[in-house]
Amino acid sequence: MSEERKSLNFIEQIIEEDLANGMAKNDLRFRFPPEPNGYLHIGHTKAIGISFGLGEYYNAPVNLRFDDTNPAKEEQEYVDAIKEDVAWLGYKWDKELFSSDYFQQLYDWAVKLIKEGKAYVDSQSSEAMAEQKGTPTQPGVDGPFRNRSIEENLDLFERMKNGEFDEGEHILRAKINMQHPNMLMRDPIMYRILKKHHHRTENDWCIYPMYDWTHGESDYIEQISHSLCSLEFKPHRELYDWFLDQVVDPDKLRPKQREFARLNLSYTIMSKRKLLKLVEDGVVNGWDDPRMPTISGLRRRGYTPAAIRKFVETVGVAKRDNVIDVSLLEFCIREDLNKTARRVMAVLNPVKVVITNYPEDKEEWLDTENNQEDESAGFRKVPFTRELYIEKSDFKEEASNKFFRLKLGGEVRLKSAYIIKAESVVKNAQGEVTEIHCTYSEDTSKKVKGTLHWVSIAHAIKAVVREYDRLFMDEAPDSHQDKDFMEFINPNSLKTIEAFVEPSLKKAKIGERFQFQRLGYFNVDNDSTANNLVFNKTVGLRDSWAKQKPKPTQNTNPQQQRPQKKAIDVIQQLGKKYTNLPEAKQLKVKSEILELANNVTYEELAPLFNTAVKKVGTRIAVALVLGVLLKHGHEKNEEVQAFITTALEDKNALLVAEAQAISKG
């Protein structure tokens, strides 16, 4: 958790009240209790962050406990993956434990309940049990085996344990109240027969405890002070406490269950069962496919622990479920990589440039910065020759004055190199441009609006680039009652292309992250080798998805159509309230402003340089837009420099931070 804590969330308030009421700080102990039946996903990061964050804040131990009570779905592979993910996120657990460690104790306690007349063996079919359990509005009725004698129940339960019965033939139920308004209290199942191999206890047991019976008792055995879980377990709290009532020693600490809202993300599936289906059906290439919302998938895609932790902290702890826009997660990784990723040049869709007045045999190695956001990152050398690759989209034979890239008769600056002018083109039989013939000028002080990235053809290294889009085309793919979530799979979620990258990347290591200038953030994939570089696109420099979202159907009646607001006007509105927003909303608004900035001209922005000092939010918005314009190649003229200087002298830390960012650019 960040040291800059603005206020206590409701869970921290509960803990503070407990401490104020006499609980010793040394008694605080938390746990993260995953079931090892799949890989952890982004939704789990909230539970991880809450428990381990509290541990860090209160200097209290946190257990990593695997609730491994269902051998039919659990595997050692999942245990290993979960440990790797939690450690990668930067968290350290105190003890590594398993619910299976407590199987004997749980069995002994179950026998105790039978002897006290609080549990019995039921031999009904599952259909009959469901019928006699009632409904939320209709009370249940006692089953035919509810009043078996204690002796018969003890005998049957031991024979269940000894493997004398088939699966489904008998179960053990708690004897509570079949008319209870909470259906979970209507004689819940404690044990079922499962003749499956367990990844730890192997074939020692053929009866396994149910989650509700196991979970609270495991918390009690471990002396967990606060058992934190998601909201769907709130109805289970009454049962959690009832089970504890049967075994708790008044001289020992009693765990307290409290619930928080789950982390739900747009365009994302959070069900491990459904994620497993994606793997088994070959829709993705395993649990760590970079399109998957698993932590291992995000890691392979290039996400950082810092970005994920920042995302979880920004979302915060709530009491009500809500859906977080996935663009906030993407914004967090952009912000992190912008500070840390080395800038390099790569061309994904190349067209050849020939500089006709540059000597054929000449080769220069030019200095270029590694990261303008980090002064300590230093410089590197890039080779420059007569023949280069640039992006096809960076050239047009004819274009308007708003096209700040290369066009016939126009000039652009090559990043860290010279200014070139397009003189003529060579086309193939289909009329496509295959070569752009240019001349260059050694006068690099000349002012031109556009700056392009490039690679020297003679030195370029071929690389495979995997460009990812969202796996689902619907914001809530599993929320449609009449449709299967698989119907919303994006058929274009992966595009593999052959690109050319600068030679400094020849020794790039698996997991290294880079900004391909003007293109986005990429990292080296696990499949990469010295002779075959493979890069995954982590995220673009801007949120391009917002542009692709289908717009609401417009009324075509001209009299009823409203004129669309200009981007600069929307930005001004967003800026007005910026400084009054909570951090999560600030990040979302910042993302919106950066996206809108792509539709703003310098002429529209310049009048706002003189915004009154007290209108800090608007000035922050201006700084954000200016940063985008400068990245697109606009020069830092006197007007721009004056705005930056004034902003750097302001008292508002947010404005100063944005001014520092663009002054380094």
UniProtKB/TrEMBL annotation:
Domain of life where this protein originates: Bacteria
GO MF terms held by the record: ATP binding; glutamine-tRNA ligase activity
Gene Ontology biological process terms in this record: glutaminyl-tRNA aminoacylation
GO cellular component: cytosol
Chain segments carrying region Disordered: 125-145, 545-566
Coiled-coil regions listed in the entry: none
Compositionally biased intervals (Low complexity): 551-562
Entry-linked InterPro entries: aa-tRNA-synth_I_CS, Gln-tRNA-synth, Gln/Glu-tRNA_Ligase, Glu/Gln-tRNA-synth_Ib_cat-dom, Glu/Gln-tRNA-synth_Ib_codon-bd, Glu_tRNA_lig_a-bdl, Rbsml_bL25/Gln-tRNA_synth_N, Ribosomal_bL25/Gln-tRNA_synth
Domain tRNA synthetases class I (E and Q) anti-codon binding: 451-525
Residue ranges constituting the Glutamyl/glutaminyl-tRNA synthetase class Ib catalytic domain according to the UniProt record: 28-338
Keyword Endoplasmic reticulum belongs to the record: no
Domain named Glutamyl/glutaminyl-tRNA synthetase class Ib anti-codon binding: residues: 341-440
Keyword Cytoplasm: yes
EC number(s) reported in the record: 6.1.1.18
Keywords: Aminoacyl-tRNA synthetase, ATP-binding, Cytoplasm, Ligase, Nucleotide-binding, Protein biosynthesis
Family: Belongs to the class-I aminoacyl-tRNA synthetase family.
Name assigned to this protein: Glutamine--tRNA ligase
Species the sequence originates in: Allotamlana fucoidanivorans
